[in-house]
Amino acid sequence: MSTDTEKKPDAPLEATETVKDEGGLDDDEDAEITLKAVGDDGKDGKSFNVKKKFCKLSNFVMTILKGDPSATEIEVRQVGSETLDNIVKYLNEHKGEEPPPLPCPVRSTEMAQIVSVKWDAEFIDAFDKKAIFEIILGANYMDIKSLLHLGCAKIATLIKKLDQKEINRIIEEEEKWQKEHGGGDKEKEEMKEG
User: Fold this and answer.
1) By CB count within 10 A, which of 8, 58, 117, 149 is most buried?
2) 171 domain-assigned
3) Which helix (H) or strand (E) holds 9?
4) Which domain holds residue 86?
5) What pLDDT does 29 receive?
6) pLDDT at 177
7) Residue 50 bridge partners (DSSP)
8) Of 64, 126, 129, 51, nearest in space to 94 by CA
9) 64 close to 26: Cβ distance less than 8 angstroms
10) Is residue 182 part of a domain?
11) Does some domain include residue 186?
12) 9 to 1, 6, 19, 20, 22: CA distances (angstroms)
């Protein structure tokens, strides 16, 4: 009998905890969270507000909110302010809804022919290569798969536009840079063995 008495109070508590875990995003549709950029130097510090429900595309943010549903600010390390601003624009545009997956392999050099959502093509086409790589790194850090795939598809279109000589030149430059800056694979292997 004492076992039954102990189980009865536990059951309602578990149900209450479950409701609390599911809370956060569903209770207040307009609740916002602040994403704060914290660069490598720790001094970036710009903040961007976004509705919690729009953050469903970011597994990074959702994991934090699952652990602390009352969180109102999340520091986003390793993502600069400009990049975080662009990521927030992407989240706001998609409103927490996953866009249709991109075709793989990429068969066109035009993003408008690859994506189903016209806004995505216009968004990613507006950036130079450096900004696209920053967005890819930020999307990877924040675990936003659809934005990561969009950025990678854009880089694929840029590569498809190059002829073989240009691709070889880029690879040679990278290999030369690796050798000059001690990033060669042989050196890494020697360090592991030594």
Assistant:
1) 58
2) no
3) helix 2-22
4) 2-161
5) 59
6) 87
7) 33
8) 51
9) no
10) no
11) no
12) 13, 6, 16, 17, 21
Both tokens assigned to 1: 């009998």
What is the distance between the alpha carbons of residues 172 and 179, in angstroms, rounded to a whole number?
11
> Could you tell me which residues come within 8 angstroms of residue 176 by beta carbon, excluding any fewer than 6 positions away?
none
Q: Are 59 and 139 in contact (CB under 8 A)?
A: no
Closest CA to 122 of 100, 89, 145: 89
CATH number at residue 96: 3.30.710.10
Q: Provide the residue type at 58 as one letter.
A: S
Q: Domain for residue 81, yes or no?
A: yes
* Tens-digit pLDDT string for the chain (194 aa): 444 444 444 444 444 443 344 444 445 557 999 999 986 666 667 999 999 999 999 999 999 999 999 999 999 988 999 999 999 999 999 999 999 999 888 889 999 999 999 999 999 999 999 999 999 999 999 999 999 999 999 999 999 998 999 889 888 988 988 888 876 555 555 555 55
- Cβ atoms 95, 52 nearer than 8 A: no
Residue 28 to residue 154: CA distance in whole angstroms:
36
Domain tally, the chain:
1
Residue type, 45: G
